[in-house]
Amino acid sequence: MLSYRHGFHAGNFADVHKHAVLAWIVQALTAKAKPFCVLDTHAGDACYDLASQWAEKTGEWREGVGRLMGCPGAPEAIAPYQQVLEAFRASHGERAYPGSPAIARGLLRPGDRLVLGELHPAAWESLRGFFARDGQVAVHRRDGWELLGALLPPVERRGLVLVDPPYERDEEYQVAARALTAAARRWPSGVYLLWYPLLAAGRHQAMLRELETAKPGPMLVAELWTAPLDTPAGLNGSGLCILNPPWRLHEALASLQPWLVDCLAPGGAGGSRLHWAIPDA
Question: Which of the residues 45, 143, 164, 280 is marked catalytic?
Fold first, then answer.
């Protein structure tokens, strides 16, 4: 199924949550001199136009990145994300929003690599065009789940895998749990960032239980919602499952998530939680 296009949802509250954590992790990887690789399995586009017909049809960005700009008291943990946003807008215009490939690329150093997987033909063409002259980025028209099996571990032996599937099919939650478990066995030292939606049906819960049972490594779970979790229609919240989280990520999220809730859900309907599903020994 290739019907999903993220342009309708670009810059929404879930993107802000996911991309802020993605940027923090990539920035953390730069603390050591050795090069690293970022693998984005379901990459989507690198650049979204928030003035486009798609983005304006839903207007979701106004309740996401649109709210973020006016929020006071920003914690230090949001700085890498804000840095990328500012640089991206300076290069591509005030209504441009970076997708996860551009977020990661904006924080790489010379010698680091970015590997992108995208099966949707239009998104793949867009990625190829955006990174056409960039020797640090490889773009594959390939199924993201298959990509995990084919390209891990990377030659650098350091890095991050971002897994952000569309969850168009209910069984994709189980696929995600098993693919992440298998990937962590092949590359046990890698950092893995898995995004999932918080919906009233709660399908993510079985996925997390399966991962906890498999015990692929230390596992930090961070969730944020802007509507009551039992709201029957629509996306209520954003979930992140992080395997082998970098040092101090828990501390960063403890300050970041409450601030994001205040910014993105000012009416009081939002909330967040953060816990070790599998403790770091």
Answer: 164
